[in-house]
Amino acid sequence: MDIAPPSTTKTPMILLALGFALLVIGSYLGLFVAPAEQYMGQVQRIMYVHVPTVWSWMLCVCFTFIAAVIFLFRNDLKWDARLEAGLEVGTLLCAMLCCQGAIWAKPTWGVWWDWDPRLTSVAVLLFAFLGIIALRQFVDDPPRRAVWSAVATIIASADLPIVYFSVKWWNSLHQTQSSPSTVSSAFHLPLRINAFGVFFVMVAFVMLRSRLATRKLREELV
Amino acid sequence: MLTAALRKELLLQWRSRSQMMAVFVFGATSLLLFSFAIGPNAAALRTFSAGFLWLGLLLSSTLTLAESFHAEMENRALEGLLLLPSNPRSLYYGKAIANWLQLTLLGIALVPVMVVLYDAGTTQLLTLLVVILLGTAGLSAPGTLYAAMTAQVRAKQTLLPLLLFPLIVPALLASVKATSLAILGDPMHDLRNWLTLLGAFDLIYWSLCGLLYPKVIEE
Description:
The structure holds two protein chains of two kinds. Chain A has helices at residues 10-33, 47-74, 77-109, 117-138, 142-168, 188-221. Chain A is an all-alpha fold. In chain B, 84% of the residues lie in helices and 0% in strands. The radius of gyration of chain B is 18 Å and the shape is globular. The model of chain B has no long low-confidence stretch (mean pLDDT 88). Classes of the chains: A mainly alpha, B mainly alpha.
């Protein structure tokens, strides 16, 4: 197996700068311009980073799953580099959204954690991804490592809907998903700007990480 | 082909039955330890007995599953098996069914220990058997696949639980719920729902893992 050299890092760097700029603008609007929410008060402002993080995380998990499937069909190590990038960026976003959620939940629900279907599915996926990243550290042969992590990613992704529905049969107290249509128009703009900000940062991270993974793979294959 | 693979696995297990005995003692010991974690509170122990049973079974399963590829790893026997004019899928299903039977036996053997230690008697033995069959099927399908991977790497004892535990959360949850309903009574008739969930989990993973297994062991 061979792998093509990575392309330049110009595009991801531009995306990264754009993403951070949008995050600064969106967070400024969210923190200082948008009004405080009537019932939750200032705590609610964490929504401007939490909800965009969740959206980008979901896209990142979908990307990782697709990369795993494409790798198994094509056997092209380029997709293994992308899978590795998706796994790590997905884990980072997942850890971030768990922390943000806990910070929001303590003053709002009175607890750091709750066994709600969405929270539990996120936690299960976080641990599943950590397990796959650990597996990658212990396999030295690149093609074999690629196949195994693709297989493990597919198996873990298939688990997600089952976890969600199994936990749903317990009681749930998580809010319904926020989207621009469920929040008042005063909250729209910072939410949208931050959504694009986090999205661009996520895409830039995935691109940079997969270029790095490609470089490492090329070195291992020589 | 499948019957030949299954026969090989069962023969291997029969010849290493002393190991099976050791795993049972390990499971029984962990059941004993759980009661010390809770304290001598008979009511609480009875309430949590189903959870303890499945945790004991889960911990023991990592031992049997990790061992199940032991013979294949010696003298590159796996490569020899793959050279046979056989389907790698039947190798997988042979091993998965053998692991399933072994875990079921282990589960059945642990039930009396649970009943004695936690005073968790039940008359619904048939229900309990169905739950154990479905639950251990959920453990063995992904467990066998992951064991095939982790048997070939360093640190296999750590990696197998790391990969398996997050995955079997729904199966564990449903098995514990169903067992608990069988022991403590089922006023809302929820048992059927949990069994359906377990059955769906088994169906998905027995087909998905069988589909992906040839990829895992091919060179």
